[in-house]
Specification:
The complex is a heterodimer of chains A (328) and B (716). Chain A is of the alpha+beta class. In chain A, 29% of the residues lie in helices and 20% in strands. Chain A has 12 helices and 12 strands. In chain A, the strands form 3 sheets. Chain A has a 5-stranded antiparallel β-sheet with strand order 4-5-8-6-7. A 4-stranded antiparallel β-sheet of chain A has the order 9-10-11-12, sandwiched between helices. In chain A, strands 1-3-2 form a 3-stranded parallel β-sheet, covered by helices on one side. Chain B has 716 residues and is α+β, with helices and mostly antiparallel strands. Chain B has 18 helices and 27 strands. The model of chain B has no long low-confidence stretch (mean pLDDT 96). Classes of the chains: A alpha+beta (328), B alpha+beta (716). Bound molecules: flavin-adenine dinucleotide and iron/sulfur cluster (SF4).
Chain lengths: 328, 716
């Protein structure tokens, strides 16, 4: 870990001013991603701006029936919030499927969105990695890549986005609210995270100095019928090999609307509109779920050790859809 | 007393944080050492750049091969495999695995040393390493020395070819397992403090006397000048049996700086630097007649070692004695990889070997359409088939039958995929288990103190296994006093010498010495016509004797009985799994271990020990895999988020049964040792259950979902 300055920001303007003026500054929230990577010398901010005291820890109802979540809301609080459990069970389930209770108590909503990949090479400064050290090469491409992505990858990077929460938020079509040096912005989840392309070091649309103040989750009445399913090597405290967040609007046995997103298999939280289209208008049941799974994994590219993920993701999605379909 | 479920006498110390582990000793003027590691796997260091590190805040010294104090014989003075090993002591510039220690930074604070260590740069002339086991297999060569000093590396009895030819059914299968890293809860650590030419080491170890001798030789100083203290060790599993590089580096720096130095490994540094269970590739051939009688057994093991030292996983030792089969061959081969040297890891040999043997027996049972337990009983070894000796005790038959009854084995359906529970196929499987009952010389001192307490001392170790507790019980039992009257002291080379706490031999060896010392003290007091049963009378006795403690010492060692009998523990493991019919995930839903392991000194700590072992085996079966990059030899998943050991959610109710056994031969207490057998057989029981559930035979550990999902015979 490199030496760094530390400031506990008392208010948002202070936090943003420091971050905007120091190109080597970073916000720190729960620290569960950042401190970890600092210890590994993967990240070395010269200055940490602690934002945990900012008044951004509320979960509020919006007039249109959506929910606004402050960036500082802890993962455990969000998961156990009554409104979330009632309206977006998929989000609560996704949060509870992530990390461990201790980590969830520290981790924040804003930090979770910005968590970094668990690619082993990214975390090891002794190996080449385009994401950590642009242009150095991708060690995973021809290396140990059992946990890597089959969707959204490029020959420059095949790392997965590791968040569970974000998969649910992608399915729910959440909006990321940002305050920054050049004004306030609200970005739909679908364009917030970037696929690696030729620049895996660029992971999100966030610019330096911009602060995530929270997310809005739009009203989605049928999300009461939603499910998050995570498949992993160990039954708790492990990242997803494949996961699915789904919501189904079923009336008279027909799927009227659907939301589908995949995790553990893609370079970003992976909403699949193709899968959604394959579901809408169909009779709820295994034929439709199978078609959705095929559509979702269309174009998936296997690497030497992760080909199983294509089949696993399909089956995970089918199982999640079947569970959602079976809900009252 | 003996046989009572006494709660841990050190339990309160542990839960309140008062139990003092080695790294926690408060030492004045302590400096912190952090190891610098290589970033290539094979080659020579051509240059060090230590300037930035040296000028970094708080740094006291930076040692590399350029300036490290020279050790006698270049640091190889204590080489005596398998325990006295080749370490990385900055005596030359060779690099032999990725992550090998190439320097030590000492600073005022741990954080300062950590940062400065990251500033040390090395340049290498590097060569392509050999890392991948499969690619290395063609280079396998026979291992020649005796295994663990006493077992021939290869054996042959009868006529294997004839036995195979006579068989009605044959199995020919290959079983593989990856490197498994121990990952004790407490990282390896040591504090080294010199007082003139006297060295004290506070070390996390399984063997204080071993460390003392090793370190004395390494530095070329008299053994008497070295004292090793280790009151609590936070898990070891074989990885703290003999000292690794950090112990010597701490002592080396402390001497050069004339200041105490502490070195605590990081979790990452526990991958490669301190041993692991090696890769194994096992070839198994079995032949049997229709009635199940084994006509031939061949077990060949290839295991990995490092490029610079031979360490063999004693894979086939259990196969030699498990079944009455007159035609058998076993052999061990090694391949050299550019990785850290492997070492003993809980149930070394048995845990890995029984996986292959008992999986193959299951395959044979399937082929013969026989009940797996029936097949085992058909080949039950009434005597040790290798030596021809009588068993000192063996209740494996009861383990099978009582275990099967309690587990509900009779409800098992032989046909795979015939039991379904919701999304999952349900299957059950079983395996035999065995582990030798070893014993080594040990000594103990028992003293009646002026305050009426009885202090018993033996330089053994508390690894978390319950040593403090059972030794206290043994002494109290012999003296006929409540356990509150006894204080047991261990982990200090000022106390009577005891063997390594490994090989499941502590209860037998140290336990016997403690028992004999307590008996001797009891007899001495009886001869004085004293009475120790109450504090008052005990105090009286000491006062009458002039106020000096009354003491008795015992030196206990195994005798001729060792040659007259074959001494082994046995067990039968039963597992039930639920394998998701679509996703391939394996969930262990029940497990039972039925054991004949000699006399149980304390059913509570014994049960914990067995459960711990079974969970260790569960990790080996379903999740543990030390991932290396085949091109660079980097250890990739070197932390507890990525190296998957079981968590509570993976662990079901585990049931343990002990057969009523008291071995008449092993030692006066009748114990056989329970440290390791718990993790033996778990892998095969689970693998066999997975087969029973799904019809998929996974012969490659760990049994992850992709190995099931990818199987053609597996589709929902
Ligand atoms: C061992 C381990 C296991 C884990 N397992 C899982 C798992 O199974 N599933 C899962 O989903 N996650 C898992 N995680 C990841 C965990 O969810 C994230 O680390 C956590 O959500 C990050 O939140 P934080 O508040 O601690 O972020 P921090 O570490 O504080 O910050 C992360 C990044 O976001 C930036 N940042 C934080 N807040 C803001 C903001 N408001 N505006 C702008 N920038 C900001 C920081 O500068 C930093 O770059 C695991 C983590 C660990 C360490
Ligand atoms: S997959 Fe991405 S993160 Fe991993 S080594 Fe390649 S470039 Fe780096």
């Amino acid at each position: 870990m490199h030496p760094f300055l530390y400031t506990l920001a008392a208010d948002e303007p202070t936090a943003r001013r420091i971050a905007a003026t120091d190109p080597a500054a970073a916000f720190i929230a729960g620290g569960t991603t950042l401190i970890d990577l600092m210890k590994l010398n993967v990240e070395h901010p010269a200055q940490l701006v602690d934002i945990t005291r900012l008044p951004l820890a509320k979960v509020e109802e919006l007039p249109d029936g959506g929910i606004r979540v402050g960036a500082m809301v802890r993962n455990s609080d969000l998961a156990n919030h009554m409104l979330i459990q009632a309206r977006y069970p998929v989000l609560s389930q996704a949060l509870l499927a992530g990390a461990s209770p201790q980590l969830r108590n520290m981790a924040t909503t804003g930090g979770n969105i910005l968590q970094r990949t668990r690619c082993w090479y990214f975390r090891d400064t002794a190996t080449p990695c385009n994401k950590r050290d642009p242009g150095s090469g991708c060690s995973a491409l021809h290396g140990q890549n059992r946990i890597h992505a089959v969707l959204g990858a490029s020959d420059h990077c095949i790392a997965t986005h590791a968040s569970d929460m974000c998969v649910a938020l992608a399915a729910l079509g959440a909006i990321v609210r940002i305050h920054g040096p050049s004004g306030d912005r609200a970005l739909p989840f679908s364009i917030f995270h970037l696929v690696p392309g030729a620049h895996p070091e660029r992971e999100t649309a966030l610019q330096h100095g911009e602060l995530i103040v929270g997310i809005d989750i739009p009203r989605l009445p049928f999300a009461t019928r939603s499910v998050y399913l995570k498949v992993r090597d160990r039954r708790s405290y492990a990242f997803a090999l494949a996961s699915a967040a789904v919501a189904l609007d079923i009336r008279d046995g027909i799927i009227r609307d659907a939301r589908v997103a995949l995790g553990g298999v893609a370079t970003k939280p992976w909403r699949s509109q193709a899968a959604e289209s394959a579901l809408v208008g169909k009779t709820a049941g295994s034929a439709a779920y199978h078609a959705a799974a095929m559509a979702a994994l269309e174009g998936a590219v296997p690497r030497a050790r992760n080909a199983f993920k294509i089949e696993l993701a399909k089956r995970t999605l089918m199982r999640a859809l079947a569970r959602a379909g079976a809900l009252a | 007393m003996i046989g009572d479920p006494v709660s841990r006498v050190d339990g309160r110390l542990k839960v309140t944080g008062a139990a003092r582990y080695s790294a926690e000793w408060p030492i004045d003027n302590l400096a912190y050492g952090v190891i610098v590691q290589s970033t290539v796997a094979k080659g020579m260091i051509t240059a060090f750049d230590t300037e930035h590190a040296r000028s970094s805040p708080g740094v006291v010294a930076v040692y590399t091969a350029d300036n490290a104090p020279a050790l006698p014989d270049k640091g190889r003075a204590a080489m005596k495999p398998p325990a006295g090993r080749e370490l990385s002591l900055l005596q030359d510039r060779a690099v032999r695995y990725n992550g090998e220690p190439i320097g030590l930074v000492v600073a005022e604070k741990f954080e300062q040393a950590t940062h400065a260590a990251s500033l040390v740069r090395a340049q290498y002339e590097s060569h392509t390493p050999l890392i991948d086991m499969q690619s290395a297999l063609p280079s396998a060569y026979p291992y020649k020395p005796n295994i663990n000093g006493s077992f021939p590396p290869a054996t042959q009895r009868g006529d294997l070819a004839a036995g195979l030819a006579a068989a009605d059914a044959r199995i020919d299968a290959t079983f593989t397992a990856p490197i498994e890293t121990h990952n004790s809860m407490e990282p390896h650590n040591t504090i080294a403090q010199w007082d003139g030419d006297q060295l004290t080491l506070y070390d996390s170890t399984q063997f204080v006397y071993g460390v003392k001798r090793f370190i004395a030789k390494i530095f070329g100083i008299p053994e008497a000048n070295v004292r090793v203290i280790s009151h609590f060790t936070g898990g070891a599993f074989g990885s703290k049996g003999a000292p690794w590089s950090h112990v010597v580096l701490a002592a080396m720096a402390a001497r050069a700086l004339n200041r105490p130095v502490k070195v605590v490994l990081t979790r990452k540094q526990m991958f490669g630097l301190v041993g692991a269970r090696p890769h194994t590739v096992q070839h198994l051939k079995l032949g049997a007649r229709k009635d199940g009688t084994l006509t031939a057994m061949e077990h060949r093991s290839i295991s990995s070692t490092s490029s610079f030292e031979e360490w063999v996983e004693p894979v086939t030792l259990a196969t030699r004695l498990m079944y009455a089969c007159s035609n058998q061959q076993t052999a061990h081969e090694l391949v050299r990889l550019d990785v850290g040297t492997p070492t003993f890891n809980r149930g070394p040999g048995e845990s890995s070997g029984i996986f292959a043997l008992e999986s193959a027996m299951d395959e044979l049972a399937v082929k013969l359409a026989m009940d797996p337990i029936e097949l085992r009983l058909r080949n039950y070894a009434e005597r040790d088939p290798e030596s021809g000796l009588e068993w000192s005790s063996k209740s494996l038959r009861q383990c099978y039958s009582l275990g099967a009854e309690r587990f509900g084995w009779s409800r098992r359906r032989a046909e795979p995929r015939s039991v379904r529970d919701g999304d999952a196929f349900v299957g059950i499987g079983m395996s035999s288990a065995t582990y030798p009952a070893r014993r080594a010389p040990a000594s103990a001192l028992a003293r009646l103190m002026p305050d009426g307490m009885i202090v018993v001392q033996a330089a053994t170790h508390e690894l978390g296994t319950g040593t403090y507790t059972i030794m206290t019980q043994i002494a109290a039992d012999a003296l006929g006093v409540p356990i509150e009257r006894v204080r047991f002291e261990l982990g200090d080379t000022r106390l009577p010498e005891n063997p390594i706490s490994a090989g499941s031999l502590t209860a037998q060896s140290t336990g016997t010495a403690v028992h004999l010392a307590a008996v001797a003290l009891h007899d001495k007091i009886a001869a004085m016509r004293g009475d120790v049963t109450t504090i008052v009378s005990a105090r009286d006795l000491v006062t009458r004797g002039g106020g000096q403690p009354i003491e008795a010492r015992a030196d206990a060692k195994p005798g001729d009985e060792q040659k007259a009998f074959s001494m082994h523990s046995f067990g039968a493991i039963f597992a039930e799994v639920r394998v998701d019919a679509s996703l391939g995930t394996v969930k262990l839903s029940r497990m039972l271990g039925a054991y004949g392991v000699g006399r149980i000194l304390n059913p509570k700590t014994a049960r914990s020990q067995m459960i711990g072992g079974m969970i260790y085996g569960l990790g080996m079966t379903l999740t543990e895999d030390t991932l290396l990059d085949a091109r660079t030899g980097r250890y990739l998943n070197a932390d507890l988020a990525e190296y998957l050991v079981p968590v509570n959610a993976d662990i079901p109710e585990i049931d343990v049964m002990f057969m009523d056994e008291r071995d008449p031969q092993t030692n006066p207490l009748g114990t056989k040792g329970i440290g390791e057998i718990g993790c033996v057989g778990v892998t095969a029981a689970i693998a066999n259950a997975v087969y029973n559930a799904t019809g998929v035979r996974v012969r490659d550990l760990p049994i992850t979902l992709d190995k099931i999902l990818g199987h053609t015979s597996f589709a929902d």
